[in-house]
């Protein structure tokens, strides 16, 4: 394979470079300059920009093949621990694509493995649960829901109900991810499939303890916990997250390369990786491989995704970060509810409960917290 590293865009953390397949003829699809003001490394310093010239020299000129390949579909595979922000970031992505001229026509549909589970079974907040679905020992049932959700996504793509399927699940293990890529591969090789599906990985990570706390607070009001007591919901979600930490395998460059090595280039437009970390405030890195056959539509989409992830902090992240800051400030809780003392009181007592459950000792017990989040003590 003919690859060349073009640019180092972050510190040598999980993924460190952007790669493009090299092609001799040049036509820049990144016609507007990429705004790099929002690129930050993990130490908060701006990272080196990706020059338009660099990109321009690497991309293929369109041919007639292009029109043949317009009938492509995409599967966005989310990866990330519970409450990392996967569903939120994907909602933002849908909005962003709708608001972008070149991608506004693309129809997105989300397939959430948790929704398929909830249709069948409600969460019971008791320690005596015989079948805790989040206990890795009982993973079979959870795998089944994920398979149902993923296969429904493939079916809807094949039936032209949507153009992008977003598979919303944690996809925490290598085995799961292999399953997903194998399914796409056999879908693409199946002569009765109406379209070819290109996988796009969107990795969403959250290692900031305040963000995690805030996100868990919001999770305690989601569909799993409607009408349930606040402290029990937070405890249950905390237990779930702890279980995920025992099984989560970070997605690595090796795994990406392994996928590339067995995915069939003739049926794919490419394999793509994007990463949003801590609402875009730490390293944001992309790895992109274009197939020679990539259509204009694919390139427009990948360009939009690139812009979305690298500018996430400016477009969506900063608003979230200021909300998190305000959430933990007693003065802001009181002033935002100044006409409603009861509401302020309830919010402050919930904050106390939240801080007492998701405390330092909780974080210490999360298996491989630093390894999974790729942080050193210096970063903390
Ligand atoms: N980038 C963000 N912008 C705004 N709010 C966010 C963001 N990330 C997380 N949140 C907050 O955290 C909560 C949990 O996030 P979300 O449901 O998106 O996580 P998730 O990774 O999809 O979780 P799960 O895997 O458990 O379904 C959201 O309801 C939202 O309040
Ligand atoms: O099967 P996976 O990949 O763990 O992901 C699905 C699970 O992720 C969650 O969103 C995690 O909280 C659950 O609602 C859902 O059951």
From TrEMBL:
GO molecular-function terms, A-Z: 6-phosphofructo-2-kinase activity; ATP binding; fructose-2,6-bisphosphate 2-phosphatase activity
UniProt KW Kinase keyword: yes
GO cellular component: cytosol
InterPro entries recorded: 6Pfruct_kin, 6Phosfructo_kin, P-loop_NTPase
Ranges that cross the membrane: none
Record's protein name: Similar to Saccharomyces cerevisiae YOL136C PFK27 6-phosphofructo-2-kinase, catalyzes synthesis of fructose-2,6-bisphosphate
Pfam families: 6PF2K (PF01591)
Domain 6-phosphofructo-2-kinase: from-to ranges: 72-265
Keyword line: ATP-binding, Kinase, Nucleotide-binding, Transferase
GO biological process terms held by the UniProt record: fructose 2,6-bisphosphate metabolic process; fructose metabolic process
């Amino acid at each position: 394979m003919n690859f060349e590293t073009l640019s180092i865009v972050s510190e040598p953390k999980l993924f460190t470079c952007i790669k493009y397949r090299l092609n001799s003829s040049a036509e820049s699809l990144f016609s507007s300059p990429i705004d790099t003001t929002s690129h930050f490394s993990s130490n908060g310093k701006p990272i080196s920009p990706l020059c338009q010239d660099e990109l321009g020299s690497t991309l293929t000129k369109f041919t007639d093949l292009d029109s043949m390949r317009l009938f492509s579909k995409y599967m966005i595979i989310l990866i990330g621990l519970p409450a990392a922000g996967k569903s939120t970031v994907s909602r933002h992505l849908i909005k962003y694509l709708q608001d972008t001229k070149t991608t506004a026509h693309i129809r997105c549909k989300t397939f959430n493995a948790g929704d398929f589970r909830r249709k069948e079974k409600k969460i019971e907040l008791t320690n005596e649960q015989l079948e805790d679905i989040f206990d890795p020992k009982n993973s079979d049932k959870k795998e089944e829901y994920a398979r149902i959700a993923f296969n429904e996504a493939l079916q809807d793509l094949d039936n032209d109900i949507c153009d992008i399927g977003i598979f919303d699940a944690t996809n925490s293990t290598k085995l799961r991810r292999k399953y997903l890529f194998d399914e796409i591969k056999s879908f693409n090789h199946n002569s009765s499939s109406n379209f070819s599906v290109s996988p796009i990985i969107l990795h969403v990570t959250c290692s900031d303890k305040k963000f995690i706390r805030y996100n868990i607070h919001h999770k305690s009001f989601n569909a799993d916990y409607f009408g349930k007591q606040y402290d029990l919901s937070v405890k249950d979600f905390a237990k779930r997250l702890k279980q995920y930490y025992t099984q989560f395998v970070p997605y690595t460059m090796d795994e990406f390369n392994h996928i590339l090595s067995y995915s069939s280039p003739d049926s794919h437009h490419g394999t793509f990786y994007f990463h949003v970390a801590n609402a875009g405030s730490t390293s944001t890195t992309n790895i992109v491989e274009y197939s020679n056959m990539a259509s204009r539509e694919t390139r427009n989409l990948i360009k939009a995704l690139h812009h979305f992830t690298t500018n996430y902090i400016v477009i969506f992240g900063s608003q979230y970060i200021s909300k998190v800051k305000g959430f933990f400030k007693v003065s802001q809780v009181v002033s935002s509810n100044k006409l409603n003392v009861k509401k302020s009181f309830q919010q402050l007592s919930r904050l106390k409960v939240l801080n007492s459950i998701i405390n330092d000792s909780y974080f210490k017990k999360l298996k491989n917290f630093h390894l999974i989040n790729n942080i050193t003590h210096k970063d903390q």
